[in-house]
Amino acid sequence: MTDTQHRQTFVTSTDGTKIAVTVTGRGRPLVVSPGALNAAQDWQPLADVLAPHLTTYAVDRRGHGSSGDTPDHSIEREQEDIAAVLDLAGPDAILLGHSYGGLVTLGLALRQLPAAFVLYEPPVPLHGPIGGDAIAPFEEAVAKGDLDRALTLGTRNFLQMPEAAIDEFRRSPVWSWRASMTPTWAREVRAIDAFGDDLDRFTGLTTPTLLVTGELSPPVLLDISRRLDDALPNSRLVQIPGHAHEAYLTAPEALAEEILPFALKATA
Question: Based on the domain organization, do 122 and 141 belong to the same domain?
Answer without folding.
Answer: no
